[in-house]
Amino acid sequence: MKVNPGGKTPRHISAAEAAALVKSGDWLDYGVITGQPDVFDAALAARRDELEGVKIRNCLSLRPRAVLEADPEGKHFLWFSWHFSGYDRKKHDAGISHYIPVNLGEIPDYYRRFNPPVDVAIIKARPMDENGWFNFGGANLWHRAVIECARTVIIETNPAIPHCEGEMNGVHASEVDFIVEGDGQPPTELPNSPIGDVDRAVGRRIANEIEDGACLQIGIGGMPNAVCALLLDSSVKDLGIHTEMLTDGIGELYRAGRITGVAKRLQPGKIVYSFALGTKELYRTIDRNPDFQCLPVENTNMPHVIMQNDKVVAINNTTQIDLQGQAASESDGHRHISGTGGQLQFVRGAYASKGGKSFVCLASTYERKGQRRSRIVLNLTPGNVVTTPRSDMMYVVTEYGIANLKGKSVADRAKALIGLAHPDFREDLERQAREHGLLPRHYY
């Protein structure tokens, strides 16, 4: 991290003065998740009619963005997202938000090698400490890479953000041009998804595969939450954490003493993550807690890093799997709904880990327009994006079972996946598989 104590002295300005620095055609970066600006956003929206073609990158909007609300037709502001939240998805449906396909751990490299320079970076952080540092809180990811290639750096301060320990989790005043005082709102909370019967059934199958000393990556949703809840009631001990997203479930395991990290090879004894998103209880747990280390995403998500820990267990959701084992986790046909995120990188990193296991889980069915449909299908929905290729798929889990697809032929995969489908759909899936040559006629 470059720091020049004799370099810049940042100047305090108002949000309106900061927004006045933006010119038509500029590239802006709004930071990531809880690091996105609010008072600057409102001030920039107020300049809508003065600007054209302002391009803004962001990731996972947790609150409505003023620039999009002020420009519903996207004539003045162009919105580019590395990963969709529900809000970003709605704006994509309206034609004013655009997804950038990416493996999340590669994004810092994109800024340094491929993206056009950032004209103005606006990142929310804690107020400057006595040593001149602005702490990013629980959202490290690629903020450092943005700052390195930004022509102008603005920090919007917010003392309500937890102070989070970690590598490169902050920026020094010598690298900052301007400081804007924020509104002091607490970081947005993400309520825990309710755990249903299907989630528990899937979670139980995965939890049974987790050994003492395993190093976990936990994704978002009811099924990963169920795994954490079941581990709380199990005898598994000395768990480690090396994950992209820090969740409430991990926080609960930590407070219960189940996480020690003693078996980890990288950062032993530390809970490693790149961003935290959950309830205020999680934010209280990580505040000034040296057991938690918030790292840049290239240090959490790259497969060659993940694999250095032994017994890595990666747990991720998907929405549809075809009979050859391809998982579509980010779109519904041509409608984009989330993003690749770190799923593929953790699938690969966990597999390469000594004793590692990768689980991709899903409910066997869903309902649409009052009709129940199978999530295990002969062919993916036309337009669906493959997030995890068949060649990378390891364990697939539904409420009806668990199957390891590594080393299985196409026919064996089809047979195994049909066995994970809801019983009402198995006969039809087997018929389709035979008609299309996935299951030869003579196949048992």
UniProtKB/TrEMBL annotation:
One of its GO terms (cellular component) is cytoplasm. Pathway: Lipid metabolism; butanoate metabolism. Residues 13-183 form the Acetyl-CoA hydrolase/transferase N-terminal domain. Coenzyme A-transferase that converts butyrate to butyryl-CoA. Signal peptide: none annotated. The keyword Transcription regulation does not apply. Belongs to the acetyl-CoA hydrolase/transferase family. Residues 278-433 form the Acetyl-CoA hydrolase/transferase C-terminal domain. The active site is at 244 (5-glutamyl coenzyme a thioester intermediate). It catalyses: butanoate + acetyl-CoA = butanoyl-CoA + acetate. It comes from Neoroseomonas marina. Its EC number is 2.8.3.-. One of its GO terms (molecular function) is acetate CoA-transferase activity. This is Probable butyrate:acetyl-CoA coenzyme A-transferase. Keywords: Cytoplasm, Fatty acid metabolism, Lipid metabolism, Transferase. One of its GO terms (biological process) is acetyl-CoA metabolic process. InterPro entries: AcetylCoA_hyd_C, AcetylCoA_hyd_C_sf, ActCoA_hydro, ActCoA_hydro_N, Butryl-CoA_acetate_CoA_Tfrase, NagB/RpiA_transferase-like. Its main location: cytoplasm. CoA binds at residues 219-223, 342. It is found in: Cytoplasm.
